[in-house]
Amino acid sequence: MTPATTKTFFEGQGLHFFCLSLLLALLFVASHMPGFGDGTFLGLSTCTWVELAVANAVIHQVYVWLCWRLELDGQNLTRFLGRNAFRFYQVGFAVLILLRPVLAFAVGWSNRGTLPLSPWVGGGIALLLCFPAAYLFYSVRTYFGIERAFGIDHFDASYRDKPLVRKGIFTWTPNAMYVFGFFILWVPAFLFQSVAAFWLAAFSHLYIWVHYYCTEKPDMRRIYGS
C-alpha cells in the first residue's frame, strides 16, 4: 500500500476511533444508572446482551469500512474474490445488520420494566417509530435499491452514474437511512420500557452517524466528486 492509498484508506478513521471511544465512555457511565443491569434472558445478563450488541455494532461498521476501502483503493476484494466479491461482502453485511435489531430486542426483553414509563405510552411510541422505519424499507426496496443500500457503488462503477434518489422517504432527506432506519432500534426501549435498550439505541443511532461522517461521506466525495 503506497503512502497515498494509506492516507485514503484510513481517512476519517482517527475521528472514528475518537468518537467511538467517547460513545463507549458515555455508555459506560449510563450503565451505572438504576435499572440498567437488571434482568436476564436465555441465561445471559442484560449487561452481557448490551456488550454483544455493542460488539456487533462495532464489528459491523469496521467491516464496512474495511471492505469499502479495500475495494475503493485498487479493487482488492474483486482481485481476490473475482466477480463474486460484492456477494461475499453482502452476506457479511446482511448478517451483521440483521443482528442489530435482534440483539436490541434481546436487551429490551432482558431489561423490561426498568424505564419509568407507562406501558401504554411506551407501546404507542414504539408503534409510531415503526411507521417511518417501515416506509424507509419500502422506499429503499422500491426506489433506491437494496444493492445500492449495501454500497455496490464501491464495487461496480456503473452505479456511479445513477442519479440521486428523491422519491419516497428520500424526498424528505437524502440521509433517510441514517435518520429513520435506526428508529427500529429504539422500538425495544419503549416497547419493553427498558433503560438498557434506551441507551443502547442512543449509542447505536449516534454511532451510525460516525460511520456516515468518517467513512461514507469521504467515500462519496471520491466516488461522485461531491
Descriptive terms for the model:
226 residues, mainly alpha, 2% strand
What does this protein look like?
This protein has helices at 3-9, 13-30, 46-72, 76-81, 85-110, 119-144, 146-150, 176-179, 187-191, 195-224, and strands at residues 40-41, 44-45. With 226 residues, it is mostly helical. Strands 1-2 form a two-stranded antiparallel ribbon. The model has no long low-confidence stretch (mean pLDDT 92).
What's the overall geometry?
globular
Number of DSSP E strands? 2
Mean pLDDT: 92
Given helix and strand content, the structural type is mainly alpha
Q: Taking strands numbered 1, 2, ... along the chain, how are they ordered across the largest sheet?
A: 1-2
Number of discrete helical segments: 10
Cα(first) to Cα(last) distance is 25 Å
Strand content bin = under 5%
Q: How many whole angstroms does the radius of gyration measure?
A: 19 Å
Give the count of structural domains: 1
Order of helices and strands: HHEEHHHHHHHH
**Weakly predicted, low-confidence segments:** none
Biggest beta sheet summary: 2 strands, antiparallel
Helix content: 55-70%
Provide a compact summary of the structure.
This protein is mostly helical and 226 residues long.
Question: What is the topology?
Answer:
Blueprint: H1 3-9, H2 13-30, E1 40-41, E2 44-45, H3 46-72, H4 76-81, H5 85-110, H6 119-144, H7 146-150, H8 176-179, H9 187-191, H10 195-224
Antiparallel strand pairs: 1-2
